[in-house]
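Objective 1.3, modelling of assemblies. Example input:
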Amino acid sequence: MSNPDELLRIEGIRKTFPGVVALDSVDFDLRRGEVHVLLGENGAGKSTLIKMLSGAYRPDSGRITVGGKEVRIQGAQDSERLGIATIYQEFNLVPDLTVAENIFLGRQPRRFGFIDRKRMNSGAAELLARVGVDVDPRTKVRELGIARLQMVEIAKALSLDARVLIMDEPTAVLTTEEVDKLFRIVRKLREDGVGIVFITHHLEEIAALGDRVTVLRDGRSIDQVPASTPEDELVRLMVGRSIEQQYPRERGDAGAPLLKVRGLTRAGTFHDVDLEVRAGEVVGLAGLVGAGRTEVVRAVFGADPYDSGTVEVQGKPLRRHDVNAAMDAGIGLVPEDRKGQGLVLDATVQENLGLVTLGRASRAGFVDRAGQRRAAATISEQLKVRMAGLHQRVGTLSGGNQQKVVIGKWLLADTKVLILDEPTRGIDVGAKVEIYQLINELTASGHAVLMISSDLPEVLGMSDRVLVMSQGRIAGELAAQDATQDAVMALAVSAAATTNTAVKDVEVSRGH
Amino acid sequence: MATDTLKSSTDTGRAAVLRRMLSDNGALTALIVLAVAMSFLSGDFLATQNLLNVGVQAAVTAILAFGVTFVIVSAGIDLSVGSVAALSATVLAYTATTQGLPVWISVLLALATGVACGLVSGALISFGKLPPFIATLAMLSVGRGLSLVISQGSPIAFPDSVSRLGTTIGGWLPVPVLVMIVMGLITAVVLNRTYIGRTMYAIGGNEEAARLSGIRVKRQKLVIYALAGGFAAVAGIVLASRLASAQPQAASGYELDAIAAVVIGGASLSGGVGKASGTLIGALILAVLRNGLNLLSVSAFWQQVVIGVVIALAVLVDTLRRRA
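Predicted structure (tokens):
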């Protein structure tokens, strides 16, 4: 029965956690030289499945065979010995060591007991060349942007002689250009005979890169289909129902301007940014990663300072670098880094929902706990947060539900202008649509939304107007009907063409 | 994750409640095991008088530790509380005994001294952006130095009215135990019910998320360290009243006991977790150990070793239990 091309086979895997069946009778297989996409909503069991292969979890029942032999993967070492490498969304790299040291971490070539740097660096250079990334092996990892970090992770996997490479949403944090580069590398690896398990939420990537698709839903493998399957069909398989409209934007009439930004400048980061958001309107802020979008909205919200310019809410100027002034005026920010900046992960859903309103719910220093609980109960029901209860730790919710909690805490605070920075990053299709519907409800009731997104179809589908940033400046504005992917991209790279500086590698390193 | 969490387990009755309480709280289990062991090893341990002694011995550490709990929950650390306690007691004795000020003014001055020390540490941390470890290490040295300067290196007698804090009420209930209980209740209320208490958990859990949710982190940190300083002052007064004098070298090294008590009580040094009850239990564990080892006539040198081992074990067991 063993097919010589078969690298890996999983049969009838079951895994339970206290009170939860995470996986049940899941089948999966991987052949030499293919990209097998693992598709499913958040919480469908993709992460649990790959953690079985990397040795982080052990199955309760079922079989895993590698190269025709049944194996038990007890830990990371077993997985490494079997030639399975995993690249998680959060990279496992040591910032203050060099690229070469990271690649050979724990296995540095030695000479007389000392590390043989020469051999290590040349070995690393070879691997990096194979990946096709131009990085000096002696560079410290801290100095690299996200895209290159990922390439280093891939080089590390290759150094382990990985025959099975598992990539967990590798494209979630990359710009379009970087994604193209990643795809080239993945295709090259496929030609070399590596089997790749690829997890993504971007359906268009499946046809572009994949060979086969296994769809997981509620912990079961629902179906295995070719990658050429139409997107509608994939969505239907994934959510178990068809989603009528991916971007259900209902446009209304825009009212009075709520947020007005004039000439906002921070030297070296963003310059002369003008923008206006009206009541009932969704304004999209598009651009390449590193164009300064996040920096602008953080400055508007008062989280970071700016050098000159003004921010007005309903005609009243805001004090610079003062989060509380912005909040009092009715601005709320849902930050890009949900876990790092949006949530207190170890606290409960209720605590997180009540964070913004904590001060208002306090009298003479004492918090009205009952009131906080009532408010949290109401809003979590309204947002359909799926949880065991208000006392569940927020860190154990799925990404989509976590995002609802972050949005919920601002809704409780009567926010008028909601700034959403990458609101649907890493969120599955079903939860995305719920968030879009929420945006519709907000604007229908007179709120204004300013949305940053690197997901072009989302910006185009949900915005009433699109502002495109490039190199820290607003490169142009497009009305909803004129905004096409091409038009936006043309503006996004426009300043780059005129100033003609080395912007190809605009890399923003994010603090995690 | 699609979570259908199991409803609370089916077993009922007091046994189940007790079992859950013990498994939720490793430190409490440790305290009970320790107390039972001591009562077998030494017939004197369970005597009322001895238990009250344990309470008195625990009191100063516990009061210091309550203050440190605020700091540790907010992901900081305070090394200065022992010195600040000594300085506050010295200020009280100096102003009342040497300068002859009314005692109530001296008490207020002592408390103000503690709060001021905390404010200075807090300001260095919030506005000077010093790591808490460094800022409070500096305060440890400054506090000790100032109390030596004021007292010129020798003990100052405590006013009689304050020394009564070191005695008993009704001939049996030691006042330090009473003060410990009151401060413990205040700590529990602050942590659970007040704005500042809830912000401690938010800041300790994720400082950036707290800031972006409109919590004025810098200002809150000032208050947090000031609270720790105020608690240290109370501890200093209790300690000095037991000794009937303010000694500039008193409470030296107590900051480490306080931190140990907080950590044994289940708080995490990385912040966001910690309870008043846990800290109290932590302080009691240390006191029971010292008391028991004394009853068993274990040498003071070996006591240090045993206490160190117990601290490591307590936290180790707790960590393993959490991971499971």
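The two ends of chain A are 46 Å apart (CA to CA).
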